[in-house]
């Protein structure tokens, strides 16, 4: 079942080799074995894909919203039937346990389904006019060809956040997945087209971000760029696409704080912190990256969270469906975790658990790192300022809620924040004061299809999810008529 796969580019509904025949290997983060290979797109391939997407745009955008809704929902049934296979590819290339990978594919289908339903609810408006003979109305039209550039931590889910509104509004797309996890998004897109989305509406090009990604951002035939990735890459995309006046939306990095007040339900807080830090090995933009716990409950909360973290099972997710954690997706991720832990310990933090790679032959060839908890963290530590994107959770104690809010907001990032309290007034005041696009009170379910997800500060531009996100893929037109 785990033989290497060979994927080509996907242009106009057909598999297409790169014009110069170049290929790249994809290897397992669990053991380094070959998972498959991809074609490396050239500038000529970019022109071919953009041409196909532009041609398909004429027909796809002229369908009625109801026709698009039916077509997309029909295709999703076909994708869902292949979720096991696509999930297996994801587990093999990304490292997350198989059950989580399969559930991600189903969740991505749900997101695209949510947006397909939205397609028929994009309403324009009629304005009162200054003169009886004028008529004025506002309509929304699809922007055109969109480049969808995605990262490796949730390779199919984060694609669906873009693909859903793009397809529903009548846009056509060039998907550019990361070279770390290109196979599952390719298989996902191919399944959508096999299920009935017309060829040319979804095209997939694989290759490096700096070359292929940049070429897509600058291509005159691409009207919009939607990207999820690091803040550094997002700024590069703005520098390239901004002067060309492209419509750009960016979901970028996070350094998400959690404030746990003295009156919080500590069992709930410990459960949420364990989930929101260690699931997917902390490789989530909205992972809790630092905890501020009231001094009165700090020791108990650390003990409860440590007990939960130490119970998490870790291993090759492809071979055991019941595991909590797989390997990290890249060896660079392990290196960052190690650097953050070493820096924190050197500056005075203490280790409550983890702090190293696991022992044993089963882990020797993979990117494994144990769930790690640090105490005594201070603002000068890298782990409190940079995005760790790994399974390392630092705790600091606070005395007043105002002090905790100030510490939480002292960050270049503003993606998500968490607060735990039983007091209604504290819940409201703190969530209003936190500088973040999403605030979760007493839970960790950051992303829901109906909730807008918009990074503040270095965490992004524009938004994804919720019915509002369709406007990231639409142009506004005011039509005024004199009778
Ligand atoms: P990355 O920035 O390295 O790459 C993201 C994508 O951009 C990849 O497809 C890459 O090939 C492409 N790319 C790289 N350089 C480019 C360029 N110059 N022009 C165009 N495209 C380019 O990110 P990553 O390492 O794949 O993913 C991890 C990062 O993503 C983390 O910082 C994480 O916080 C962030 N992330 C954010 C969210 C969110 O919703 N805010 C969600 C998940 C991940």
Overview of the molecule:
The chain has 483 residues and is of the alpha/beta class. It has two domains: 271 residues, Aldehyde Dehydrogenase, Chain A, domain 1 (3-Layer(aba) Sandwich), CATH 3.40.605.10; 194 residues, Aldehyde Dehydrogenase, Chain A, domain 2. Helix content is 38%, strand content 22%. The strands form six sheets. It has a seven-stranded mixed beta sheet with strand order 15-16-17-14-13-19-20, sandwiched between helices. A six-stranded mixed beta sheet has the order 10-9-8-11-12-22, sandwiched between helices. The structure holds nicotinamide-adenine-dinucleotide. Nicotinamide-adenine-dinucleotide binds next to helix 7, strand 11 and helix 8.
Strand order of the largest sheet: 15-16-17-14-13-19-20
Q: What name does CATH use for the topology of the largest domain? A: Aldehyde Dehydrogenase, Chain A, domain 1
- The total count of helices amounts to 14
Summed over residues and divided by their number, the pLDDT gives a mean of 97
Task: Provide a compact summary of the structure.
The chain has 483 residues and is α/β, with parallel strands linked by helices. Helices cover 38% and strands 22% of the residues. Helix 2 packs across helix 6 (183-194) and helix 3 packs antiparallel against helix 6.
């Amino acid at each position: 079942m785990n033989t290497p796969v060979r994927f080509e580019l996907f242009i106009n509904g057909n598999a297409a080799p790169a014009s110069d025949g170049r290929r790249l290997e994809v290897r397992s983060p669990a053991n380094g074995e070959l998972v498959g290979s991809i074609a490396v797109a050239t500038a000529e391939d970019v022109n071919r894909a953009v041409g196909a997407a532009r041609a398909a745009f004429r027909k796809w955008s002229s369908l009625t919203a109801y026709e698009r809704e039916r077509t997309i929902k029909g295709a999703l049934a076909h994708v869902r039937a292949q979720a096991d296979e696509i999930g297996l590819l994801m587990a093999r290339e990304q490292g997350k346990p198989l059950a989580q990978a399969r559930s991600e594919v189903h969740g991505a289908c749900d997101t695209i389904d949510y947006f397909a339903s939205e397609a028929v609810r994009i309403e324009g408006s009629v304005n009162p006019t200054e003169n009886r003979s004028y008529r004025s109305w506002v309509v929304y039209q699809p922007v055109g060809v969109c480049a969808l550039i995605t990262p490796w931590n949730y390779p199919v889910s984060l694609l669906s956040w873009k693909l859903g509104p793009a397809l529903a509004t009548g846009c056509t797309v060039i998907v550019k997945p990361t070279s770390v996890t290109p196979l599952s998004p390719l298989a996902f897109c191919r399944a959508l087209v096999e299920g009935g989305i017309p060829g040319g509406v979804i095209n997939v090009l694989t290759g490096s971000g700096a070359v292929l990604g940049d070429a897509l951002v600058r291509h005159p035939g691409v009207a919009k760029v939607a990207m999820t990735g690091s803040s550094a890459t997002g700024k590069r995309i703005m520098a390239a696409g901004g002067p060309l006046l492209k419509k750009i939306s960016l979901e970028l990095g996070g350094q998400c704080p959690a404030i746990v007040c003295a009156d919080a339900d500590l069992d709930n807080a410990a459960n949420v912190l364990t989930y929101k830090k260690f699931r997917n090995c902390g490789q989530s933009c909205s992972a809790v990256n630092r905890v501020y716990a009231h001094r009165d409950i700090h020791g108990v909360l650390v003990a409860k969270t440590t007990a939960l973290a130490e119970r998490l099972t870790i291993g090759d997710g492809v071979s055991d469906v019941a595991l909590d954690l797989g390997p990290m997706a890249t060896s660079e991720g392990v290196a960052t975790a190690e650097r953050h832990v070493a820096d924190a310990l050197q500056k005075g933090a203490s280790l409550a658990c983890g702090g190293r790679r696991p022992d044993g032959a089963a882990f020797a060839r993979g990117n494994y790192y144990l769930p790690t908890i640090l105490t005594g963290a201070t603002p000068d530590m890298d782990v409190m300022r940079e995005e760790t994107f790994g399974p390392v959770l630092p705790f600091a104690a606070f005395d007043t809620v105002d002090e905790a809010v100030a510490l939480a907001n002292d960050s270049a990032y503003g993606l998500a924040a968490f607060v735990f309290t039983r007091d209604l007034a504290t819940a409201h005041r703190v969530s209003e004061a936190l500088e973040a696009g999403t605030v979760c009170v007493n839970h960790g379910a950051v992303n829901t299809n109906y909730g807008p997800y918009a990074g503040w500060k270095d965490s992004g531009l524009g938004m994804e999810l919720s019915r509002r996100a369709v406007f990231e893929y639409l142009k506004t037109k005011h039509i005024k008529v004199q009778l």
